[in-house]
Amino acid sequence: MTKPFDASFFIGVLFVVASIGVAALALNGRALPIIGGGRGPLIAVTIIGMSGCAIAGISQSTALGWTHPLIVIGSALGLVALAVILAGLFGWDSVVRPIAAVAPGGTLATATTEDLALIAIAALIALKFVINLGFAVVRAAS
């Protein structure tokens, strides 16, 4: 049985906040200590985000079952995140370049592949968090 809003949920929240914070700082042009710039923030956000998912997300699969819609959606989003991460690390610009078209006013037209991948992975982490939060609220209410 899953326990919404238990310790693993709140630890996952800390990891989500940390990963989005690292992404925001890196996208604002700050070279972070130990992490640096370039691909470093992408690697750091990936490690932090996947750790949060392992603690608060996929750990629910044993209680819910691998065919539960939440687990299936989370796994599919995880595969998309993996493709985005690989695109950022290996310079596959065509995978992440469509993200620039979504930005208003063409503000991301000159963004690097790493920055676009960082934006995409931060957005996927936030989306997975919102889905998990919604599920936790529904489970707590029932």
Describe the structure.
- The protein has 142 residues and is mostly helical.
- It has one domain.
- The chain is 72% helix and 0% strand.
- It contains seven helices and no strands.
- It is globular, with a radius of gyration of 16 Å.
- The protein starts with 6 loop residues before the first helix and ends with a helix.
- The model has no long low-confidence stretch (mean pLDDT 84).
Topology summary:
Blueprint: H1 7-27, H2 40-56, H3 61-64, H4 69-90, H5 93-96, H6 98-102, H7 113-141
Helix pairs in contact: 1-2, 1-7, 2-7, 4-7
In sequence order, what are the helices and strands, one letter per element? HHHHHHH
User: What is the typical, i.e. mean, pLDDT?
Assistant: 84
Please, what is the oligomeric state?
single chain
Contiguous uncertain segments of 5+ residues: none
Total separate domains: 1
Question: What Rg do the Cα atoms give?
Answer: 16 Å
- Which outline best applies? globular
